Amino acid sequence: MSADITIPVGADPETAIGQLTFDARGLLPAIVQQWDSREVLMLGWMDAEAVRRTMTEGRVTYWSRSRQEYWRKGDTSGHVQFVRALAYDCDGDTLLVEVDQHGAACHTGTRSCFDGRGLDVVAAPTPTP
After folding, report:
1. Nearest C-alpha neighbor of 80 from the set 99, 58, 101
2. What is the DSSP letter of 125?
């Protein structure tokens, strides 16, 4: 997280939220990563209240753009995300949420929302030193 600014556990949520840049809808993307393996699990959306809840409750809360309501990961599925750390990027417009994921992160039942969804690309050659 060299370019990111870490939000310490127990930090004042209002101070942290003041460092963030939300879009015109009052949202910002939250990239969710397994804290120890660094596996990217999913992307969700948060508004200021979702960030506040995530910082103070120890569980990740998102804003559902389709349902127009808050949802805390795992309340209905049992696939809980426990917060380990939060960081924001250099522009303050994206969060990195490090979690301890219990169960599937994806609503389809896969560990990650990216499992089995790779695209074929022409890979750039590795530069030689």
Report:
1. 101
2. P
- Euclidean distance between the first and final Cα of the chain, in Å? 25
Cα–Cα distance, 11 to 53 (Å, whole number): 12
pLDDT at position 128 over 90: no
Q: Are 64 and 82 in contact (CB under 8 A)?
A: no
In angstroms, the Cα distances linking 4 to 12, 51, 64, 81, 96 are 18, 16, 25, 21, 9
DSSP, collapsed to helix, strand or coil, labels residue 119 as coil
pLDDT tens-digit profile of 61-108?
999 999 999 999 989 899 999 999 999 999 999 999 999 999 999 989
